[in-house]
Records
---
Amino acid sequence: MKRTLLTAGDCAAVIGLVREQVQRLQPENVARYLVVALASLLTTGCVEKNTARHEVSVPWALGGKQLVADLHMHTRFSDGALEADVLVRKAFLAGCHALAITDHSDSQGKAGTVEYLNALSALRKQYPKHVLIGGLEWNVPPKVSGTHMGVLFDPLVEQNMIAFKQRFETPNATVADAFGWLSQMVKEPAHIAFIYNHPSRLGVPDAQVLAQWADWRHASERAIGFEGGPGHQNLTPNGAYSPVPTEERWDPAIARIGAAWDQLLDRGESPWAAIASSDFHKPGTEYTPCEFSRTVLSVPEATPAGVLKALHAGSFWAAQGHFIDYLLFTANAPGLVMPASPGETIRVPLGTSLKLRIALERYLEAKPTPLAVEIIGNCRNGKPERLAALNITPTQSEIETTIAAAAPGADGTSCYVRARVRGQNMKGEPALAYVNPIRVRVAAAR
Ligand SMILES: [Zn+2]
Ligand SMILES: [Zn+2]
């Protein structure tokens, strides 16, 4: 029998106090606080053991700092038209708080050299309040495949970039060797992030994207996900995607319901794909970083390490077209002390009703137009599908719906929910924002 020391009203008040306290805490203290709070709530009977609980939590998800970022751009260190200092200044003026310079690692370019690292260090000194990460856009071997991977380095370990380029931008290099070597050289997984750039740009079929990802993830936990929102957004064909075009500016492997991203999520894997990048080379065919394609991260601290932690944790969303400035997707269930947000995993009894909420703030300079929200996932039937289509009127800034966690997906133990929001950018063109998924482990009710 349920042991309750407090009335339902008392419990609601206590849980309310815990939630308020979490909002006030520094992000790094939230996890410790929640462990103690949850233990007390279990003792009082306010939270029962077999109700919902967090299995993977991102302590900074709700209280972290919000950083607008662009994680993919080129300078004159490879084939970009602008000097790094000119591009960085333009990007910060356009609203970036964080960026990664990812020049091509081709051997004839100057990325991944001492000169490149010196330029990055000088720019960090010049812009101490901004976050600047160094990286490479690596030609995944064999180079003829045209597969590109963004490799981001924490400044603490970025000197490894030089040897990485020398060893693995070569005809006989393999992904397994490259990943193996980097794990030897850089022990802390969160100091590196691999991003599968513009996965279907050259018409690569879903099955191949899926197989590629499975191989990479098998070889390294540093592979964090996909650039779902590719760059070259002012170019025809959009994104330089040919023969298969982008879908409303997003990569088809991510945008089509049931495509590679959903299939991986259905299998219980968690690649993050809510990444939109400028892939800036020159003004005109690409927008300035953060002017159009924006990735917005919730970070534990505004540093390169904080950005990399958020990339590994999945605490971010992204938009093609600047139409919203803030987007929060949460899932709540009876027993949860805090609602779950992207990147987190909760455990709930099978059949639990999940209250899903989208809260957003429109870009102040954009016209307040209606927004369409889609909830996508496999929690209803165990297969990826559109679970709900909702509308936010021009005067609303949030919407809720309820979905039952009624079935696990192909992994047999969990399902997931994700969301996207469709609106209009300043020019009246369709604009779309994507969030990362929330995973729901479904357990048989006791
Ligand atoms: Zn590329
Ligand atoms: Zn690029």
---
Amino acid sequence: MSKEKVPEEDLNLPYFHGALMNQDADQLLVNDGDFMVTMKLQIDINKLVVRLKKGIRRYEIKRLPGSAKLGSRSKETIDKLINSLKTDVLEIKGEKIVLKRAIAKGKFQLMHKDVIFKKKIGAGAYGTVYRGRLVKTNEVIAVKKLDPESADEDGLAEMMKEARVMQLYDHPNIVKFHGFILDDLPYLLVLEFCNGGSVEDRLRDKGSRLTVPTRVHYTYMAACGMDYLHKKGCIHRDIASRNCLIHRGIVKMADFGMCRATTVYKMDMSKPCNVRWLAPEVWDNGETRFNTDVYAFGIMMWEFFEIPYATPYAEMKAGQVKRKTRTGYRLPPPAAMPKEVGDIMKECCQPAADKRPNAEKLKEMLEEVYKKQNPTETTHNSSLAAPVSTEPTAKSNIASKIDNGALKKKAEKEKKKSRDSKG
Ligand SMILES: Nc1ncnc2c1ncn2[C@@H]1O[C@H](COP(=O)(O)OP(=O)(O)O)[C@@H](O)[C@H]1O
Ligand SMILES: [Mg+2]
């Protein structure tokens, strides 16, 4: 891949969409004559993408310093080339390239110059996560960077899957999506920053100092997030405490990398997966559904109450987890888990998938428990109500995240996660 920078004059063209993928570009070109310019992974190759009467066409623009060439037409810059095509129509393979409306970037398409980021706060499957700021509003953000070694067609496709679904959501218990950045390398996702890090890190760091009512509240908030997602027709497929983040005491579902907007999604069982959170019936046919998310939620409930924090079935290898859960073995409810929460956890993990509560029911049941545990809280908007006493300040949280080796731990965890496979 070329390491060259995209020329500033190209970047600033309102209709320059950088590495926008074909399927996303095609969606934006609605009427005949709608057009934009994109860039493939090598920046010297740009494409003019235009909707013509017979469909979408992609024409290669050769970009060299001081020239932009399409077919027989050559001008000094892309903008001049486009303007010339508008006034003096070019014909390629018997088809006239009629350009009518330049399609500008959408509201989720940000540019590198819109963000500032430096401090690393996390690491995941395909990238590194940083804390940063939006230049325009000074709002604190998290930036998920596609690492250079993953910045190929497949890596970009993964990143854009996450961006496409996240654009559709707006809920207090789902991490807010600000946008994606494809105008130049590195490719980025821009998200709401969560000052408390992941729930898993919080459970590890706070141990028994995290009260049972707070744990119940976390569980309830996560259920509100999952209920919203399911109502939007989306299976998360990676529900676990590591993928729930906390911001000012509010739990938010995050990491939509595996999420699918469908009611059944058949997964490739030959690829590594999160065996410990995987509903056992998935081994039969590879099908993940809303009720397999509910099973994973049950395992996450166990994580939320086990003190000190432990990986589910820590003493077992992945293969053993698979064998034992398929023959009916289940994690016993942790000692700190109130009985009624334990009963809900068992229902979520029961073998008969269709008997598991759906997310809405689960949310209602947990709301009941939450009300009992926190009698002074009003339930209206209770997903937003944080028990103040148990929450550290934003500042101390960020400091601990950066100073106490959390990153190293994260890297070790990711390594462990990737060892867990089919087994
Ligand atoms: N919006 C955010 N705010 C704060 N920290 C975040 C945010 N997004 C991710 N992180 C940190 O980065 C880690 C990896 O992010 P995640 O989205 O789970 O990536 P992956 O898909 O690679 O697992 C998280 O566990 C968390 O510690
Ligand atoms: Mg993750």
---
Amino acid sequence: MMKKLNALVLISGGIDSTVVLHWALDKGIDCKCLTFRYKNQPKKEIEAINKLCSKNKLDLFIIEHPSIYEFGRSNKNLEINPNNLMYYSLAVSFSVGKNIDLIIGGQNKEDLIESKENIKHFYKKLNSLIIDCNSGQNLKIIQPFINFSKLEVVNLGIKLKVSFKDCWSCQRDGSKPCGKCSNCKTNLNISKKLKISI
Ligand SMILES: [Zn+2]
């Protein structure tokens, strides 16, 4: 019998990471969740993360990093958000010695600012660095949706019966999503296309 894989899934309360978590659970992977607390994080996002983990009875680990928000977002011309390097490095560091085989991220191809090849090269290099610093532990970063559009991610979420109403993608806080930030606009577009509410 094949050994059951153990994964650390990076979750943010948004649709991509919620769907990727359900994808992993559907594959029979044993999942634990990791999230990052950053400055000015919407309360609704924290609620979504907590709800997702409690609903699926999954352990949630939190890394507090009050200065995360400032990094990476200041320069929109960056090809790869350096926050990703930090998130994954922290996830690798957290996973060492914890019987974790996979670190799973929910990035899809629309999150990539430039070419997909460059980002693939970036993660390949990151994975080889992990091998260099983890003697004996067979740890790997995977992004199952890197070839998916956002629409494909949502469609998969529908198939996996993801409760989109429990997600929070809006960059602002409030009782309801603002409808104006880039994440809300993307979600509204997809809602229109699929004639569902996400
Ligand atoms: Zn919004």
---
Amino acid sequence: MIMVYCDICKKKMDNAMTDRSFFYYANRSICEPCKDNLEFNIKTQIRAKEPFAMDWYQKVMRDTLDRACQKGRV
Ligand SMILES: [Zn+2]
């Protein structure tokens, strides 16, 4: 059995493989609650930004993810 740990909250995801309850973003594995929080966080940042730019969006994704991994939460 493969052990998967969330890169944000560092929790072990017991049934990650069978439940497909982990996600892979930019070389990081992320559990479902952290993914939801991350998406919500990014969504609020995106709605505040006008005009929208794809480059910018990718940067926000990366920065938000890096920050979340460092802090241990989104
Ligand atoms: Zn997590």
